[in-house]
């Protein structure tokens, strides 16, 4: 079910959200380039070079930016791996993301793709250090929460707010944590930004992502806002390696 092209709501089964072994499949992609390139053009050559550079540049730290070419043929790119992902899994994800995105957005000069383990974005327009408010989607756990949702959402905001503060204070702009709900229940959450953002912009991005959650995931046991600059997620089960 799609609410709009720019901000879709994807209804995934509980088991798809639970089992991250499906992470090799993209979560979603958006082709946003207004301009096209042709096969064999200087832009395509520069794009291929950039994607190769990101595959080698990103895995050691989990994040990297780059550009290739000049003038109208210049292309800018960014890749980010989830904060807990190993270098080898990061490299595998970024390596898969480039060819997959070229196949899904053929000859378009702007595109972005998300996996559980990473995101990759490129454009002929320089976008570094700017909050991406256009490329965004939502995922939800289809199971309903068995408690008052407004109280549940207050706990979500408390946890994700704490994780936002932790993320912006750290070098990775990433945080994962948990909050006890009583009755042997625990809420788990994640907050992460692309590292080209300043701490203030990261906080702004994450606050916006958190505020989107009720409209996408009201009454649900889990949900996430996934964007080109930041993402947040909550679940009633642990979903990353720590």
TrEMBL record:
GO terms for cellular component: extracellular region. This is Gnk2-homologous domain-containing protein. Residues 1-23 form the signal peptide. Residues 25-127, 133-239 form the Gnk2-homologous domain. Pfam families: Stress-antifung (PF01657). InterPro entries: CRR_secretory_protein (IPR050581), GNK2 (IPR002902), GNK2_sf (IPR038408). It comes from the Eukaryota. Keywords: Glycoprotein, Repeat, Secreted, Signal. It is found in: Secreted. It comes from Eucalyptus globulus.
């Amino acid at each position: 079910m799609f609410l709009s092209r720019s901000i879709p709501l994807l209804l995934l089964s509980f088991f798809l959200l639970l089992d991250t072994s499906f992470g090799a499949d993209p979560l979603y992609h958006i082709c946003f380039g207004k301009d096209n390139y042709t096969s064999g053009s200087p832009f395509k050559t520069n794009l291929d070079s950039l994607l190769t550079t990101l595959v080698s540049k990103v895995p050691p730290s989990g994040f990297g930016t780059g550009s290739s070419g000049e003038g109208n043929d210049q292309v800018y790119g960014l890749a980010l791996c989830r904060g807990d992902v190993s270098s080898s899994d990061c490299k595998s994800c970024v390596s898969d993301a480039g060819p997959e995105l070229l196949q899904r957005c053929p000859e378009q000069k702007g595109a972005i793709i998300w996996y559980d383990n990473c995101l990759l974005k490129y454009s002929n327009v320089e976008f570094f250090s700017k909050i991406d408010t256009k490329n965004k989607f939502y995922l939800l756990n289809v199971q309903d929460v068995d408690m008052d949702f407004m109280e549940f959402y207050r706990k979500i905001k408390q946890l994700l707010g704490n994780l936002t503060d932790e993320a912006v204070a750290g070098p990775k702009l990433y945080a994962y944590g948990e909050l006890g709900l009583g009755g042997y229940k625990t809420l788990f959450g994640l907050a992460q930004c692309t590292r080209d953002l300043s701490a203030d912009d990261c906080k702004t991005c994450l606050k916006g992502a958190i505020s989107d959650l009720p409209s996408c995931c009201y009454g649900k046991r889990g949900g996430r806002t996934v964007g080109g600059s930041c993402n947040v997620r909550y679940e009633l089960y642990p979903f990353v390696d720590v």
